Amino acid sequence: MYSRTTRYAFHLLGTLARRRDVLVSGEEMAGLTGIPANYLSKILNQLRKHGFVESQKGWGGGFRLDDRALDRPIMDVLVALEGAASSLDACAFGLPECDGTNPCPLHDQWEQIRLASDHMLEQTRISDLAFDGR
What structural domains and CATH numbers belong to the chain? Predict the structure, then answer.
């Protein structure tokens, strides 16, 4: 449904939301989440560029959730990382053109699923992801 990068980003943001008052090193984040360190570093840098996390280099450095990100919808994360507002925009039947005037056999049911997913992504805030563990 969502790319591995986006799923990992949700997990990282949830872990950082749980530890808002401290800097968390990449090594510690890898241990807490099970995300490979090289991949984790790339995702955290993308999240930093998009204003979700802050970073501090050097001894005692690490990452922390940007307080302004707490109230952002997780849809913002999906758009920042995947460039799409919904991962469910493609036709469920696999047709290149599918819409209300040219629907596939699954169009109406798929549309309900897509709308429910988009609603969840818009209503769920990064602060709601606070998570402690794998």
Answer: 4-129 (1.10.10.10)
- The CA distance from 27 to 35, in Å, is 10
Rounded CA gap, 69 and 123, in Å? 14
Spatial distance between the Cα atoms of 21 and 65, rounded to a whole number of angstroms: 9
Predicted pLDDT at 87? 57
Report the predicted TM-score, pTM, of the whole model to 2 decimal places. 0.86
pLDDT tens for 86-121 read 657 788 888 888 888 999 999 999 889 989 989 999
Q: What whole-number distance in Å separates Cα of residue 117 and Cα of residue 45? A: 26
Spatial separation of the C-alpha atoms in residues 105 and 56, rounded to whole Å: 52
130, burial (CB in 10 Å: exposed 0-12, middle 13-18, buried 19+): middle
Which tokens in the block code for residue 111? 């549309």
Task: Looking at 52-133, list the stretches that DSSP marks H as alpha helix, in order from N- to C-terminal side.
Answer: 74-82, 107-123
Low-confidence ranges of the chain (pLDDT < 70): 85-87, 131-134
